[in-house]
Specification:
The protein has 318 residues and is mainly α. The chain contains 15 helices and no strands. Helix content is 76%, strand content 0%.
Length: 318
């Protein structure tokens, strides 16, 4: 009797299709858990299993495996702050996806490359890609694109455009039982409620988001939501200093563990702002210096300007 075809013996039986699909889905699992380095390794294995001329082949996936592997690598690199390599891969993925023209692959590429621009702070570039993604998105992927586009609108002050988009993204994902990424969608919706002045809703949704991220072992999402809770506590009147410190410190520890450099910088910026407002000048300068250095190294200009402004204000008051 021939051996059973399982992921564990895919290479042994020479089933390249199984190797491609297994490597891809394993990479997705690593990404969902916040293990971005291993996610990249798995997606590279997926890409390396392909042969010349197979750019259009699905290998059992919902679209061409070559595109899917590349854009997941882009998403992982974006969370790690490795924007230069991510941008090169993103351009290649966009070129391939647009040449093929398959709607799901286009959507998948637009929202992951859009995420890259969002993480680095190029909000105009992110919104342009995400709006194109939303226009061609099948129902299954709409909630992901809607979430990231909502984040882009929020970060550019378009709160009235962001809120209904994020509410629909959360509701649609729940109705389809698409729980992967739901914690981040809830977190983004919490940010929109905070921007609208609905603090109670913001706090409630952030708590729901963190509970879901922890239950799913989505450590990257957990880190982002902890940072959000730090922001919410710091922005309360008066500031809940100890709660903010706890959340920022927990987010920072998780982000350092996972190598999430953009988020590490954001946590230092949050702590720097908090300490400047509470007259802890030495601590403020320390965190703002780290944030400024990291933003400059990653060419995150939007947040670099914020960190520079906070640093100057801190020096002015000292």
């Amino acid at each position: 009797m021939p051996p059973a075809r399982t992921p564990g013996n895919a290479d042994a039986i020479g089933d390249r299709s199984l190797r491609v699909a297994t490597s891809f889905y394993l990479g997705c699992a690593h990404y969902a858990r916040g293990d971005y380095r291993r996610g990249i390794t798995s997606q590279q294995s997926c890409a390396e299993a392909l042969q010349p001329g197979e750019a259009h082949e699905y290998f059992g996936l919902a679209g061409p495996a070559s595109i899917f592997a590349d854009v997941y690598i882009v998403a992982c690199l974006a969370e790690l702050g490795e924007f230069v390599e991510a941008a090169v891969r993103g351009i290649d993925a966009l070129r391939t996806a647009e040449a093929i023209g398959q709607p799901y692959s286009l959507t998948f590429t637009y929202f992951n490359v859009g995420l890259l621009h969002l993480r680095q702070g190029d909000f105009g570039g992110a919104i342009a890609l995400l709006e194109r993604g939303l226009a061609v998105s099948p129902t299954f992927s709409w909630s992901w694109v809607g979430q990231y586009l909502g984040e882009g609108y929020l970060l550019t002050g378009r709160v009235a455009d962001a809120l209904p988009l994020l509410e629909r993204a959360v509701e649609q994902a729940a109705s389809m039982n698409l729980m992967w990424g739901q914690s981040r969608r809830l977190g983004s919706l919490a940010e929109a409620y905070q921007a609208m002045g609905e603090r109670d809703k913001a706090v409630e949704h952030a708590a729901r988001a963190l509970e879901l991220a922890c239950r799913q072992s989505a450590r990257g999402d957990e880190a982002w939501i902890l940072r959000l809770q730090g922001d919410l506590a710091a922005q309360s009147e008066p500031a809940a200093v100890q709660d903010a410190e706890r959340s920022y410190d927990a987010a920072l520890a998780r982000a350092v563990e996972l190598g999430m450099r953009p988020l590490v910088a954001h946590c230092h910026l949050g702590l720097g702002k908090l300490y400047r407002r509470t007259s802890k000048r030495h601590e403020a300068r320390e965190h703002l210096t780290i944030a400024t250095t990291m933003y400059r190294a990653m060419d995150m200009r939007f947040w670099l300007e914020q960190a520079d402004a906070e640093s100057k204000e801190s020096e002015h008051r000292s």
